[in-house]
């Protein structure tokens, strides 16, 4: 049995070891794209892949492909994978379970004596998290052509350093065009991930089978008012950028609540104030807003509301507002055959399943442009994610890896 070949102790200690490769000490894991911690994590992971006899290829932005060559290498490979980067103050499992769990699935398949006909490729995507350049799923977004290369060349971090600077520093110097893959590059893509929500744990379900991934959008506001002395400028004469931003943040919340869809969620997760001095009126604000729904029409209604309200607020307060759309993505629908296959494999292993929607985005959202996809979700403690106490039990992970391994086997026969 493949499941018996899963070495959970090895996988658990690898998850622990990787958690220690962080810009901050455990339990707060932080690995921002191409930071020293990210580079160390990449080097560490490549060693693991080489020890498993996988051959490695990296594209121009550091997407890493670790391949187990099949008996018929001309067939399009089956792919799995996820990400190792982590937002500031994150946990040990987001993305990591899909990458190291994918590696363990391959090792277990090998140990069971299985030889695939199609190659199996384990992908570690670059920058699934929107940390350095503010846009999520950079690797898969570019791979699938959703972000054109010309636009990627313009990305800058907060210090004005671009993608070319950072990828060069990380040793990725090939032509950027090599990132782009054709539709059909993979025969299928299956991503293992923690649920990042509480449903599986609450209901005591082993495996979530993802049918659809919600459509995310993100916006950046730059608000410019007028600064001045906090003692000297009287209230009627003020153009306080923070107060306009505060009103906009409340309008963002209201837009989500009144969109007409219970699935609309909106978050103002970035709010930077200048000059940031107690005795100086805030003259500038940068805000970033994340807006999602599974239903595009509801998301668009909320977006319209946010735009109208923010314009009104800024006019009323005499604030200049510039608005940039960071991304506006469509939902992904998972492949019905893959969904059924994951369910069937879970059932054969004796695991309970539930079909679900992914409210978080994942590289699968963009891989859906290249091949049929689905995702395997496993329960995590109270649904916590993007925080240091994120946790999935070894038993939950083992089940996810077993389903992934069986699924990869079926797809590569
Ligand atoms: C992924 O990290 C997301 O924000 O959904
Ligand atoms: Mn995440
Ligand atoms: Mn993730
Ligand atoms: Mn993510």
Structural class: alpha/beta
Q: Which CATH class of the largest domain?
A: Alpha Beta
User: Overall pLDDT, averaged?
Assistant: 97
Number of domains: 2
Number of strand elements: 15
Q: What characteristic shape results from the CA principal axes? A: globular
What's the SSE pattern? HEHEEEEHEHHHEHEEHEEHEEHEHEH
> Helical amount among residues, as a percent range?
25-40%
- The number of helical segments is 12
Describe the sheet with the most strands.
Answer: 9 strands, mixed
- CATH architecture field of the largest domain: 3-Layer(aba) Sandwich
Distance between the termini: 16 Å
Over the alpha carbons, how many angstroms does the gyration radius reach?
Answer: 22 Å
pLDDT < 50 stretches? none
Percentage of residues in DSSP E strands: 15-25%
Unique ligands: glyoxylic acid, manganese (II) ion
Name the CATH homologous superfamily of the largest domain.
Zn peptidases
Protein name: M20 family metallo-hydrolase
Pfam families: Peptidase_M20
InterPro entries: Amidase_Cbmase, Bact_exopeptidase_dim_dom, Peptidase_M20
Subunit structure: Homodimer.
């Amino acid at each position: 049995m493949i499941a018996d070949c899963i070495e959970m102790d090895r996988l658990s200690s690898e998850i622990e070891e990787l958690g220690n490769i962080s810009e901050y000490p455990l339990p707060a894991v932080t690995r921002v794209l191409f930071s020293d911690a990210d580079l160390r994590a990449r080097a560490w992971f490549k060693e693991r892949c080489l020890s498993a006899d996988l051959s490695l290829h990296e594209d121009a932005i550091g997407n890493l492909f670790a391949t187990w060559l099949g008996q018929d290498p001309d067939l399009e490979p089956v792919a799995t994978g996820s990400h190792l980067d982590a937002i500031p103050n994150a946990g040990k499992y987001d993305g990591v379970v899909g990458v190291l769990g994918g590696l363990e699935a391959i090792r277990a398949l090998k140990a069971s004596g299985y030889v695939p006909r199609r190659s199996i490729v384990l992908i570690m995507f670059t920058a699934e998290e929107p940390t350095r350049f503010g846009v999520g799923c950079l690797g898969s977004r570019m791979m699938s052509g959703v972000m054109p290369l010309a636009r990627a060349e313009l990305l800058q971090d907060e210090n004005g350093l671009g993608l070319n600077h950072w990828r060069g520093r990380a040793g990725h110097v090939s032509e950027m065009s090599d990132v782009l893959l054709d539709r059909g590059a993979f025969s299928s893509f299956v991503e293992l991930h923690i649920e990042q929500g509480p449903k599986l744990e609450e209901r005591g379900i082993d495996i979530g089978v993802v049918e659809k991934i919600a459509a995310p959008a993100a916006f950046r506001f730059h608000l410019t008012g007028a600064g001045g002395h906090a003692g000297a400028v009287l209230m009627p004469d003020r153009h306080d950028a923070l107060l306009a931003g505060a009103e906009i943040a409340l309008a963002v919340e209201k837009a989500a609540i009144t969109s007409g869809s219970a699935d609309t969620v909106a978050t103002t997760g970035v709010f930077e104030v200048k000059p940031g001095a107690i005795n100086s009126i805030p003259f500038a604000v940068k805000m970033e807003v994340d807006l999602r729904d599974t239903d595009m029409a509801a998301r668009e209604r909320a977006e319209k509301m946010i735009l109208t309200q923010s314009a009104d607020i800024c006019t009323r307060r005499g604030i200049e507002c510039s608005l940039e759309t960071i991304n506006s993505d469509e939902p992904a629908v998972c492949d019905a055959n893959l969904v059924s296959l994951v369910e069937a494999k879970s059932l054969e292993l004796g695991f309970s399943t539930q079909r679900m929607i992914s409210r978080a985005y994942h590289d699968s959202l963009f891989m859906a442009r290249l091949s049929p996809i689905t995702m395997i979700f496993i329960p995590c403690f109270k649904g916590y994610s993007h925080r240091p106490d994120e946790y999935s039990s070894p038993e939950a992970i083992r089940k996810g890896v077993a389903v992934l391994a069986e699924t990869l086997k079926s797809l590569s026969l």
